[in-house]
Amino acid sequence: AKETRYCAVCNDYASGYHYGVWSCEGCKAFFKRSIQGHNDYMCPATNQCTIDKNRRKSCQACRLRKCYEVGMMKGGIRKDRRGGRML
């Protein structure tokens, strides 16, 4: 029986091992966009928002903080095939 893995960030079903942790496609894509876009997210509350499957989209700042807390690393990013230049 194959073991079911869950996203370390939001606890949804994990699609695979991404950026150093088991994560879902949503959190994988969010982390990639966040570190490629140099987004300065601001939490409207106290930087302690609960991030789970249902609330992961409610606070980008806390979602990104949790990505780092669970061990996601920038080193796992592949540059795109066109040469990886930032526009």
Strand order of the largest sheet: 1-2
Assembly type: single chain
Separation, N- and C-terminal Cα atoms: 46 Å
Q: Helix- and strand-based class?
A: alpha+beta
Mean pLDDT score, rounded? 88
CATH superfamily of the domain at 16-72: Erythroid Transcription Factor GATA-1, subunit A
By DSSP (H or I, 4+ residues per run), the number of helices equals: 2
Strand content: 5-15%
Order of helices and strands: EEHH
Question: Which fold name fills CATH's third level, the topology of the domain at 16-72?
Answer: Erythroid Transcription Factor GATA-1, Chain A
Largest sheet: 2 strands, antiparallel
* Name given to the CATH architecture of the domain at 16-72: 2-Layer Sandwich
Please tell me about this protein's structure.
- The protein has 87 residues and is α+β, with helices and mostly antiparallel strands.
- The protein has a domain at 16-72: 2-Layer Sandwich (Erythroid Transcription Factor GATA-1, Chain A), CATH 3.30.50.
- Helix content is 26%, strand content 7%.
- The protein has 2 helices and 2 strands.
- It has a two-stranded antiparallel sheet.
- β1 (16-18) and β2 (21-23) form a beta hairpin.
- This is Estrogen receptor alpha.
Strand and helix layout:
Elements: E1 16-18, E2 21-23, H1 25-37, H2 60-69
Antiparallel strand pairs: 1-2
Keywords: DNA-binding, Metal-binding, Nucleus, Receptor, Transcription, Transcription regulation, Ubl conjugation, Zinc, Zinc-finger
Pfam families: zf-C4
GO molecular function: DNA-binding transcription factor activity; sequence-specific DNA binding; zinc ion binding
